[in-house]
Amino acid sequence: MDNQLHIYLDELNIAPTGYEKSKLESKGFMPSTEISGFPIRGQKVTLHIRRAGRC
Question: Which of 5, 15, 39, 51 is least surrounded by CB atoms within 10 angstroms?
Fold first, then answer.
């Protein structure tokens, strides 16, 4: 049994305030970053974080 919790977080592809009417193009996601070592109820936790690419 894997005694580890994995949490995946993806940034939403939403234009910043003031750029809603601008023509923006998504470039997909940047490589994910992993952060580990946050114990929750005795389980190891790994956060997998992906940021959306910007033009």
Answer: 39
